[in-house]
Structures are given as C-alpha cells and as structure tokens.
Amino acid sequence: EVCACLVGSEMCIRDRFKLCGGLDAPEFLLKEIDTLSKISVVRIKLIVSQVVKGMLGNEIDFAKVESLVSKSNLTEGDVKGTIAGLEFVLKSGCKYDVDDETLSLELNQLGLPREHCE
Question: Using one digit for the tens of pLDDT, what is the confidence trace for 95-117?
Fold first, then answer.
C-alpha cells in the first residue's frame, strides 16, 4: 500500500507493507535485502531451509550457511544479518498472514530481485 502525505509544501510517498504489519519496512531489513541480492537464488533457498530448521528449535548449521555464501564475500556479521532478515520475513509473513503473491510483490518493492522473490 502506498500512502501519500504532505510535509510542509512537499509531497512525500511512503510505502506500507503487509509484511511489516502495515508499517514501513524496518531499516535493518532494507540492508539485509541488499545483502540477499548478492547471493544466488539456489543458495538463498538452502539458507532459508537452515533458518526454518532454527525456527523449529533445531540448530542452524552455521558452517553450511557460511560455505553457501563464501563466494559472495560476506562478513560474519553479514551472514548473521542475512539469517536475521530471512527469519524476520518468514515470521512476519506468518504473523500477518501474507499470501505468497503479496510477499513476492512486497519483497520485490523492497529491492529484492524478481528471481529471488519467486
């Protein structure tokens, strides 16, 4: 949803996302989406499976995640941020009952490449 408002004499447009409970996307998510864009779609899917594993109470295999992103030249902090960003998307998507089409559209609007959103 796009919301237009006046600030002084200027018009500003703010995006609000169902994924974020109808609010603006948090800054950390925007940073993590930029990082996720540097990782291949196949590797993202494998990382998501590790994140889901962690959300279900099992241990995330951080060595496996690090090996999946090794070619992306990410720091350890980037890897942890990536995991946190993916966990946020998964939890918020469930919490706010976001359907897959809306989730794909909103992630693309936030800057994730289309092929990553499918």
Answer: 999 999 999 999 999 999 999 98
